[in-house]
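Changelog note: in this version the structure field was regenerated for every chain. One regenerated record is shown below for reference.
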Amino acid sequence: MKHERSAAGFTLIELIVALSVATLLFGAVVVGIGALTGARARAALGELGATVRALYDTAALTGHTCRLVFEIPADEAAGFRYRAECAPGRVTAATDRDQALLDDARARAEAVRRGGKGPGLPDARGSASLLDVLAQEKDRVEATETFATFTSPEVQPRRVPGVQLSVWTAHQRQPARSGLAYLYFFPQGFAERAQLTARQGGSVWTLTVSPLTGKTAVVSGELEIPRS
């Protein structure tokens, strides 16, 4: 009788083994689908977008220059790390920046009046001029200030495994794909123009950062590097 019951169905041990195998296979399928869709890469950029907005607000409200620091290993399979840092003091006052922009605009207008093209003329919003001023401020910060680690409930150091990252900011010719990379946030509400590209398997996503508003957007694929 015992032999007939075991032949007609599964024993408890057989059921446990079958369920374990099914669980492992299901997990492998989920991981494979995640790699194909880039779910982890997309989620990492979503978290980075929230961190960018938080640091943008922090710099604007406190008057301190802050930055995101990216550690990108040469081993592409190792993922990447990022953390936030802020300078201890106010580096450039709003009046200094406004005067620099005004002087730059006057010089460019004078070049046009005299019949010259005025190299690097800004568009209607003056964004090219603004980026030049921000680049000068970043150089001053790096030369005169030290940065300290900054954390808040919204801004925490993170490690993202299994995702390749490249970082492009204004005035870079090519994205940084290994080593250290920085994204700066300035007082009075400005940020570096940036594109952060994340790769997972065959999936690629890009996070864009607006310099004037700090707004971010995640789009599918790798965007071309802006020429100016």
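Spot check on this record: The chain has five helices and ten strands. Confidence is low (pLDDT under 50) at residues 1-8, 28-37, 117-126.
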